[in-house]
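Archive entry. Fields below.
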Amino acid sequence: MLKIKDISNDWDGIFSLKGIDLHVREGEYFVILGPTGAGKTLLLEIIAGLYYPDEGSIKLRGKDVTTLPPEKRNVGFLYQDYSLFPNYDSRSNIEYGLKVRKLPKEEINRIVEALTSMLDIGHLLSRDVTTLSGGEQQKVAMARALAVRPDILLLDEPFSALDEATKEKLINDMKALHRREGITTIHVTHSQEEAMILADRIAIMMDGRIVQVGDPKEIFFKPVSVDVARFVKVENIWDVDIVDNSPKGLLMKLDGKEILTGQYTSPIGERARLLIRPEDIVIGSGELTSARNRFRGTISSMEYHGFFNLLRIDCGFPVVVAVTMQSINDMGLEVGSEVGVFFKSTALHVVPI
Amino acid sequence: MNFSGFFCSVRKNPLSFFFFFVGLGIILFVAGTLFNLLFKTLFLNTDNFYKVMQDETVLRSIWLTMYTSFLATIIAMIFGIPLAYVLARHDFPFKQVIESFIDIPIIIPHTVAGIALFSLLMKRGAIGGFFESIGIVFQDSMWGVVAAMLFVSYPFFVNAAKDGFASVNPNYENVARTLGASQTHAFLHITLPLSLRHVISGAIMSWARGVSEFGAVVVIAYYPMIASTLILYRFNTGGLSESQPIAVLLIIMCFITFMALRLVSKKKW
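PREDICTED_STRUCTURE:
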């Protein structure tokens, strides 16, 4: 569907893309996830044709579009600020692309009608776009982009300007819409939640490079590098020695403590890196757990994030655990408390160093 | 903002209250000057004012002033809109140099501008001869007036239009293009309508600046006499009583035009 080959771009050294390769499949919801300043928006604008790359090529449906202007590419683009034309009402915004194409009036009405019922925006059509809420603007902008039946939909941080409640609802609306219409979509974001909920596949973009492509499970549980791991908040990254390879799994040694992982075929005596998400580690006072890895440690610091909070626990090696506010209160946890730390061998991910 | 609200906020901000009265000083200076002129002419010199209102030379010169300034503004718009758009949308080497250069006519004395224009456009000037061969004469002609007005007034238009284009989110054009519009279509249907208020107010400023120009005009085209030239001529030959009524008539007509244009441009586009 979309094949990007070795795209590079240098924009006064501020934003640059370095050898981007991407392959997006027909009907796929593809999320490009990365920190601010990674070059995500620039990549999206290059796909749209708003900028041309210094090097590399872009193929859309087998056709080379690398230097085709945006008006000839048939892509839909949704900016973070939705960029509704303030000199038109909602209906005229939606009709804009259709009028540019000089479609007959009945045809335009039919398309607007269909989009209106699909996105449930009938009550917004005659509104001045400057009076719309963020969520309403997003829907109208969506209708405007979809009206011209684009081959591919490009979304630039489409939810970041919305309040929490609207965001959650619209993310789910988006998922339903994609499932129903199956339009190939590339969605750029720094939000892991959006990526996790929406993506068929995710590409991690950092510092102008694509560093990992995979389905959400691979990205969030098996990051390929420490940088990716840190970005997707795999807080526990341990460098260990492989000491034994038993039928149960690998036995690792970390600062004198033994950790058992799932089955891997790594040679004994090598060094390896263990990754585990803080959500996959549980704490408790008792011993009632089936987890193979059990340690005891003291809480060295507590970091509050809202519903989930991060505890740093010293078990002879540092462990970061996510716990709910409820658990902290119930267990009376505070800095200095001694707790049991448990995690399953299969929740650990081993990467070579 | 109503008056009670204003006084309420002033009570909480004694400094602003003090500043307000300091600032009022300069307004009184200008208002006093104009009021004095209007009062003397309209109430103490009424007969002369009526006579001037029927003086065809005066009326023609005022009309000429407004008309030539209008032409200068149209030319400023034809060249200024593209220039302002490029300056608002793009960065390029020496952009700041160009921007400073645009402001030069505001800085240099206007008689100097007139001399410079004259040496370029007079019949024996650098390009004046060429224009004469295609039938456009600047020296002592309406086109000389237009050229002088254009020179001194176009910066006002370009700067205002530039601010207008810069205030329009460039994403609008990007979105329009992904929807199939050409750059020209996006400019004409999105960017230009959205910056029209700036463009019009720039045109009004440019026009007003042209009407008020004297120094540059008088060097290149003493004749045909625009209002300012005529006022000075009558002042020199007949004194205040001869020149004051023309000045007042010019003020009134400019003010009416100015207000009318402002009202039109305040309308929502």
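CURATOR_NOTE: The CA atoms of residues 94 and 100 of chain B lie 10 Å apart.
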